[in-house]
Amino acid sequence: MRRSIRSSCANELRSQCRQFKESGKLACLLELSSVQVSASCKDELREYQEQAARFGQLDVQLQSHCRKEISACSQQLSAAHKGPGDISSSKVASASSDNIMQCLLSKRKDMSPRSGCRDYLFQRQVNAGENIKLDAALHDACEDDLQEFCGSADDVANPGISHDCLRDHIDDLSDECRLFELERMKLESTDIRLNARLNAKCGTIVEQSCQSLSPKDRVHCLEQLREDPEFPRDCLEALTKVEIRSAADNQLELFLHEECAADVKKLCKKEENVDEAKEQFGQRSNEVLSCLVRKVAAINDVACKSRVQQQMAERAADIRMDPAAIEACLEDMKALCPGIDPSHGHMHMCLRQQFESLSESCKNSEFQEVRIEMRAEFMVNPTIKVGSPCL
Q1: DSSP per-residue letters across 312-368
Q2: Alpha carbon distance 348, 373 (integer Å)
Q3: What is the DSSP string of 114-174?
Q4: What is the SS3 assignment for 234-281?
C-alpha cells in the first residue's frame, strides 16, 4: 500500500479496516471509498484507481476477485499470440493488460450471477461512467477532444460530465474518440446504472416505480412515466437527452434488435443494411426506425408495434426525436421559429402555421409527419384537420 494512502486514510484503516490482514486493507478502503471515507482519503484512492485503470496489474481488487478469470484470459491471449519465435507468454501477459480487461468484460455476461469477478467488473464499468479517466483506452482516444470541447468538465465534482460533454459534440469528435464513445453509449443502453448522469437524476423515481424491471427495461419504464405532471424535471431533462441521442443511432435502441428483430428482417432489410454500413465507418444512422414508423400497420410483433407507436408519439411531441426531420427543417426552424420550444409539439405547430414559407424538404417532412400522426390517431395538435395547409 502506498504511504500516501496509508497516511491519508489512517483513520479509516483503524476504524473500518482493522480486522483485515495487510493484503486486504487496500481492498477494504476501496470498498468504502464511495461514501464512508474522508475527502483526502477519497482523493488518494481515486488517484490509485485511475492508475489501476491504466495499468491493470496494479488493481488489487481485480487480482483478488478475478484471479481464475485472469488466468484463463492470459492463457487465451498467449495461445492467440504464440508462434515460432514469438515472445514468451509472460511477456504477452504483462504487455496486454488492456487486452486482458477486454477479455474479462467480454466474458462477464457468461459468468455466474454469484461471481465476485462479475460484480466487480460491473462496478468498474459503473465507475468508468462516472470518471472517464477510469477507462484508460477511451480517455487516451479522446484526450485531445476533451481539451478542445470539454476543458472545464470535472468528473470528480460532477460525475459523468465528461461523457455527457463528448456526446454533445459527437459529430465533431475525432474518428477514434467517436467510436469509443459510441461503444460506451451502446454499453449504457443495456443498463441504466451504467449511465452516470441518467442514474443520478432518475435514481429515485426508478427505485419507486421501475425497480422490479430488468435494468435494460428501466429507461422504457421512465419513458412511459414522463408525461406524469409529478415527473421530476431534472430526470426529464436527462432522459430527453438520452432519447434524442438514441433516436439517431440504430445501435442504441435495443428494442430494434430484440422485440422488433423479426419485423426488421421482414419489413426493413434494406434500411438495416444502410444502418450497418454506416456503423462500420463510425457513422450514426437509424433508417430502420423510420422504416418501421412508416410501416407500423404491418408490424406483427405486439411488443414491437407498441414500442414503435411510442416512438411515433415522441416524434410528434418533440421534433428532436426525429433526426431526418431536424435535417430537413433545420434552416426553417432557425429562420421561422427562433426560440420556439421544440418539445410538446410546439416546433411542429410553428412550422405548420407557416407551411407555405417552408423549404421543399421541410414541407415534405411535415406533410409525412402529419400523415403518420393521423394514421396513428394521435395528432400533435387537434386543430390540424384535413384541408389544413399541410394536407
Answers
A1: HHHHHH-GGG-HHHHHHHHHHHHHHSTT--SSTTHHHHHHHHTGGGS-HHHHHHHHH
A2: 12
A3: T-HHHHHHHHHHHHHHH-GGGSHHHHHHTHHHHHHH-TT--TTTSTTHHHHHHHHTGGGS-
A4: HHHHHHHHHHHHHHCCHHHCHHHHCCCHHHHHHHCHHHHHHHHHHHHC
Three-state DSSP class for 19?
A: coil
* Closest listed residue to residue 49, CA positions, set 70, 68, 27, 67: 27
Which residues, 6+ apart, have CB-to-CB distance to 17 below 8 Å? 24, 25, 28, 29, 32
Long-range residue pairs from 308-312, CB within 8 A, at least 24 positions apart, any chain? 308/260, 309/376, 310/223, 310/224, 311/247, 312/372, 312/373, 312/376, 312/378
- State the cell numbers at 104: 474479462
pLDDT tens-digit series, residues 209-233: 999 999 889 999 999 998 899 999 9
pLDDT tens, residue by residue, 308-360: 999 998 999 999 999 999 999 999 999 999 999 999 899 999 999 999 999 99
Q: What are the φ/ψ torsions at residue 30 (nearest 5 degrees)? A: -65, -35
